[in-house]
Amino acid sequence: FADAIVDAPDRPWEACGNCHGVDGISATAHFPKLAGQKRAYIEKQLRDFRSGLRINDNGQMSGTGDFPDHALELAAAYFSQLSAPSPESRENNNISRAKTIVESGVPKAGVPACRSCHNGDANLEPWLEAQHAGYLAKQLKDFKSGVRGNDKVMADIARRLSDDDIEEVAGFLAST
Ligand code: HEM
Ligand code: HEM
Question: Cys-Cys crosslink for 171: which of 32, 83, 92, 126, Cβ 3.0 to 4.6 Å?
Fold first, then answer.
């Protein structure tokens, strides 16, 4: 199947590589790593950018706005079958709190364990491991402020996290 994707004549993922890396490992936190991300999740994000449901990209994803379905599907399939990135080096200081939030949540604040959803089970819950810390923190802040409006559950969770918790959790996940 992977070979069939790479041989697709229009290779729609090549344009994506300018920002996300053709190996799906982008160079800066401004652009998310896509390598090994779940295929259905990538496809949903592409559809959400295209429809305007997700608009927190400062217009940089707008090039995909006129992509036909088959191009979105091919690009998602391409990036999802690349080898996942290696963890980033650790930058945060409060590993134990971040680890607790990820594994057990913050019951007092009504925050569920991130791991209850972000695991290998469901196709629409993205991998967060080894993603750029700065990208993860931006997503959580964008969910919290409502700038990223394409998931109500994550918005509700992000609103219950302090900005410090967001930075710590993002740093922990990036280095995991
Ligand atoms: C975000 C795919 C082209 C810039 C994303 C996401 C996906 C994606 C799936 C969301 C990732 C996630 O939620 O983890 C693609 C594909 C492309 C493409 C398949 C080609 C068809 C580009 C190009 C640029 C770009 C050419 C730069 C001009 C960005 C930025 C974000 C993003 C800045 C993050 C926005 C934010 O902070 O939330 N892209 N992309 N993308 N992409 Fe692309
Ligand atoms: C998306 C973090 C808990 C379901 C995301 C993203 C981040 C994140 C950073 C965006 C990833 C990206 O753009 O690549 C967290 C953290 C959690 C947590 C830190 C714990 C504090 C949960 C829980 C659920 C969940 C408990 C399920 C009830 C989802 C879903 C998406 C998502 C479905 C994709 C939303 C979309 O389609 O755009 N999460 N999450 N998360 N999360 Fe969570």
Answer: 92
